[in-house]
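Researcher: Good morning. I'm working through a list of sequences from a screen, and I'd like to move beyond sequence-only analysis. For each chain I'm collecting a predicted structure so we can compare shapes side by side. This is the next one on the list. No need for commentary yet; just the structure.
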Amino acid sequence: MLLTRDQILGAKDLTTDDVPVPEWAPEDAPNKNEYVVRIRTLMATDRDKFEASTVEQRGNKTRQNLENFRARLVSMCIINEAGEVMFNPKDIPALGQKSAKALGKVFDACQKLNGFTEADVAELTEGFDDAPNGGSTTD
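Model: Good morning. Structure tokens for this chain:
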């Protein structure tokens, strides 16, 4: 059956998932595995922003921007109980200072929930050459 414009625009297609992150539980928590973060699927515009953030333009040179790659995606996916994104771009450096194991766990869940394939990640992280073009002009 062919979808209508109203059906497409009215579809509730943004889903969430809870990810256990015992590494971030309070130190005195009796059962650290009960502590979770809620992540959401990105809107298409958010995914475009994330993908665009992996490229940096300096003058006429384009290069990869992988700084805080994982923290950037996680910051766009973690939401609070009201469904609002909890972090803003200023929080990304602090998220990047968290445990690689814990952040990686949430990052992997964000990738899976948002349909990022290994090929997508490879495409975002390849094809750039920061080396100068052409041969050397010095001996």
